[in-house]
Amino acid sequence: MRSISTLPPIDFITVREAVARSGWSAGHIRSLAQCGKLESDRSEGRILIDAECLAILIRARAAVKPRPLLRLVVNNA
Q: Has residue 50 got a pLDDT over 60?
């Protein structure tokens, strides 16, 4: 009996496409792939990134509210 995979095929994109979609630097994308935050495939001698995984990281980063910058007010009165 054969097992049939019900998972959809993974859509891999290049680092250049990942940079265009995310706005992050190529170095940031590569470091995420190396530390295992992004699913990647290096079988062809180049890094290919899982597009769905990248989309999840982009949405998660957008959901984080930016912290307000602290201001230093000097009163010279």
A: yes
